[in-house]
Design a protein that fits this description.
- By secondary structure, the chain is of the alpha+beta class.
- Helix content is about 50%, strand content about 10%.
- The chain is built from twelve helices and nine strands.
- The protein has helices spanning about 5-15, 20-30, 45-50, 55-70, 90-100, 125-135, 155-160, 180-190, 195-210, 215, 230-245, 260-290, and strands at about 40, 75-80, 80-85, 115, 140, 145-150, 170-175, 290, 295.
- A four-stranded antiparallel β-sheet has the order 5-6-4-7, with helices on one face.
- α9 packs across α12 and α11 (about 230-245) packs across α12.
- The longest helix has 27 residues, at about 260-290.
- It is globular, with a radius of gyration of 21 Å.
Length: about 300
């Protein structure tokens, strides 16, 4: 039986202390890893891998079963083994999330706001739309009106098409007219988007990862360098917690944020650390994770485009 390292114990403790659900972690593994390595994974590999983070066999099987029931995973049985892959529905959600998680530099803001009024959306569809808009960074500017400071409608248009709401929603573009309106809007954003709470969350995130990432970023003798397993586990945990932070982050442009916004520092840390973890974590993936044809294949070219380019 392999010896559990101090780093592996620390990662497992973080998962436990943060009460991270197995279901949510499975989604992270599929989005960050499996989607880039052929799309399919053997259930046994998933159980073994998540076991390193403290999840038992039953928890993983239950999480996978529920994700199949909710149209996030599809299953293929070959003999006595089961293999899983994202559904088309899950891929659509993943692609929207990936645009934010693995983003490079934020493009310059032209001052435009996208406004969404769910004028004719049926009551039983409003909550699903709201959740999708919040994930994309929208929030209620005034009652009945969602807003986001961007003219990029890619994810919004995909959502409206997928939910069959293209003719039920009014989408507008707007700009503030003068400096006073811009300052008033900045204060409104601070209040509506709960930036103080978000800032605290990012500060806690940074305190943990700036401390725990040191073995991965410092120059150490070969004998002391983190293993492929440690690099993989840190990568998954990092992406998972960052993804959860982004669920609360409206991805505002600099002009709408306080000076020295801590979220920008968090993004830089994630980008830097992910690049340091990539090579060794891939070594673990290709050695320890299997699909129906054997070890998972090398990552797709799209993987190397994350964070403006990986080594």
């Amino acid at each position: 039986m392999a010896t559990v390292t101090t780093l592996e114990k620390a990662i497992k403790k973080r998962v436990s202390d943060s009460n991270i659900s197995c279901r949510s972690m499975v989604v992270t593994v599929f989005g960050d890893v499996v989607s880039q390595h052929g799309g399919w994974i053997w259930l046994g590999s998933l159980i073994n891998t998540l076991g390193l983070m403290g999840y038992d066999d039953r928890s993983v099987r239950t999480a996978v079963y529920r994700l199949v029931q909710s149209d996030w995973l599809q299953v293929q049985k070959i003999g006595r083994r089961s293999y899983y892959c994202f559904t088309d529905n899950a891929i659509s959600h993943y692609e929207k999330a990936a645009r934010r998680i693995y983003a490079g530099k934020q493009p310059p803001w032209d001052g435009s706001w996208t406004l969404v009024a769910p004028a004719f959306v049926a009551e039983d569809k409003k909550d699903e739309l709201r959740k999708s808009l919040v994930w994309q960074g929208f929030d209620t500017l005034v009652t009945g009106m969602y807003a986001h400071p961007s003219s990029d409608r890619t994810s919004l248009d995909e959502t409206l098409c997928e939910q069959g709401l293209k003719t039920d929603v009014v989408v507008m573009s707007a700009k503030t007219e003068d400096k006073h309106s811009q300052e008033a809007m900045k204060q409104l954003v601070k209040n509506r988007w709960n930036l103080d709470e978000l800032e605290q969350g990012y500060s806690d995130f940074l305190r943990y990862y700036q401390r725990k990432s040191q073995p991965f970023t410092q120059r150490l003798p070969a004998a002391e360098k983190p293993s492929a397993t440690e690099c993989f586990l840190m990568r998954i945990l990092l992406v998972h917690e960052y993804r959860r932070m982004l669920l609360r982050d409206p991805d505002l442009p600099d002009a709408m944020l306080p000076k020295g916004w801590v979220g920008q520092e968090a993004h830089k840390l994630v980008k830097h650390l992910y690049k340091r973890l990539a090579k060794q974590s891939i070594a673990f993936i290709q050695a320890d994770l299997d699909n129906a044809e054997g070890p998972l294949p090398a990552p797709e070219s799209s993987f190397y485009k994350r964070f403006d380019g990986l080594p």
